């Protein structure tokens, strides 16, 4: 039975709680912290949203023109889901889990099959659509990057990483992987994946998230934004025209005590607007912010939510911004409040993300 034609819901709709920006709440959110959000590709007539969670489940909703959401289906792993991605045609969703496997969920048949295996939890997963091949790239805490043809059990390629994979992004023909010990490796994906360069990290603390950005004129990948646990983002061009092109900026920080001390929070996720080229960051300070990297200015910061923001994404048209609020364990067990449930919100995202008129 195709989930595209079904209307079966799961769970109950959570009551509106701590919706600081009065945005549209997604129906039947996950039961535990949200690790990833991904909208369906622009090749599809309808818009769907998937969310992976620490409750071991991946859920799918249809997002209607009104912004209202209809729960469609869910699939499960034997451990928390850490990452997800769509196939280029929108018929399949790929999931990476702490159970050391990755799965491919066929949305037409509503069946999920295992397509990858690692020796440790899989932290990242990306579908790669190249002119002469297509595959799924998985990055794991077993210090390997593997590439899978979904029709066979063994990987078609495996690359040894210097450390555990913590974050990655793909925009063909480029992939960037961030590892433990602040490693950064750029790969070119044409013909077959090959290491292109290793980059000395512009950030002094552990990498948490990264997102590749494209050239506004050619739409070719030209660099990436990297977020760390120290409330800082680096903008890094692979081939900068000037040394000044690469820079870092502080974010997700707040003035704390009267001694002028500053509270510093993790940047949990970064997303680039598909048409404006501006970006969103979400953090452990319970806020999201929108930025214009070219003008080097902040466009907007949200009100403070009652929980950290753990994941975000823009839909293909750039008119909806999805973000999740859930506990990220940044304050340990003492900071956990079982009364606070995860939420996913949808916000009109086009006008807020328009580039600044300021020049850098």
UniProtKB/TrEMBL annotation:
User: What species does this protein belong to?
Assistant: Mizuhopecten yessoensis (Japanese scallop)
Q: Which Pfam family is one of this chain's hits?
A: WD40
Q: Which UniProt keywords apply?
A: Cell cycle, Cell division, Cytoplasm, Mitosis, Nucleus, Repeat, Transport, WD repeat
Q: Do you know which InterPro entries this protein is assigned to?
A: WD40/YVTN_repeat-like_dom_sf (IPR015943), WD40_PAC1 (IPR020472), WD40_repeat_CS (IPR019775), WD40_repeat_dom_sf (IPR036322), WD40_rpt (IPR001680)
Family the entry assigns = Belongs to the WD repeat rae1 family.
WD repeats sit at 74-115, 136-158
The subcellular localization recorded is: Cytoplasm; Nucleus
Primary location group: cytoplasm
Q: Name one GO cellular component term.
A: cytoplasm
The protein's name is mRNA export factor
One of the GO biological process terms: cell division
């Amino acid at each position: 039975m195709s989930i595209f034609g079904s209307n079966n819901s799961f769970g109950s709709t959570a009551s509106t709680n701590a919706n600081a920006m009065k945005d549209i709440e997604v129906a039947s959110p996950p039961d535990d912290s949200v690790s990833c959000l991904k909208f369906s590709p622009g090749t599809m007539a309808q818009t769907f949203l998937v969310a992976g969670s620490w409750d071991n489940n991946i859920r799918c909703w249809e997002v209607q023109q009104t912004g209202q959401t209809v729960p469609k289906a869910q699939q499960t792993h034997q451990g928390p889901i850490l990452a997800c991605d769509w196939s280029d045609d929108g018929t399949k969703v790929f999931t990476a889990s702490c159970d050391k496997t990755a799965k491919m969920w066929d949305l037409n048949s509503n069946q999920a099959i295992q397509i990858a295996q690692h020796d440790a939890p899989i932290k990242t997963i990306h579908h790669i659509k190249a002119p002469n091949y297509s595959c799924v790239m998985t990055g794991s805490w077993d210090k390997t990057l593997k590439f899978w043809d979904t029709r066979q059990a063994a990987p078609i390629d495996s690359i040894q990483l210097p450390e555990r994979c913590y974050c990655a992004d793909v925009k063909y023909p480029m992939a960037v992987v961030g590892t433990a010990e602040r490693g950064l490796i750029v790969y070119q994906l044409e013909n077959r994946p090959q290491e292109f360069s290793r980059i000395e990290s512009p950030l002094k603390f552990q990498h948490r998230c990264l997102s590749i950005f494209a050239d506004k004129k050619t739409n070719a990948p030209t660099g990436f934004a990297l977020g760390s646990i120290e409330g800082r983002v680096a903008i890094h061009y692979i081939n900068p025209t000037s040394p000044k092109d690469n820079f870092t900026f502080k974010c997700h920080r707040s003035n704390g005590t009267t001694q002028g001390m500053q509270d510093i929070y993790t940047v949990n996720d970064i997303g680039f607007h598909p048409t404006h080229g501006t970006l969103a960051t979400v953090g452990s300070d319970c806020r999201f912010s929108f930025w214009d990297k070219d003008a080097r200015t902040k466009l907007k910061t949200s009100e403070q939510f009652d929980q950290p923001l753990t994941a975000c994404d823009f839909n293909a048209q750039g008119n909806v911004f999805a973000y999740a609020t859930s506990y990220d364990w940044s304050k340990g067990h003492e900071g956990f409040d079982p009364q606070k449930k995860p939420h996913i919100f949808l916000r009109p995202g086009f006008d807020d993300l328009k580039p600044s008129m300021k020049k850098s």
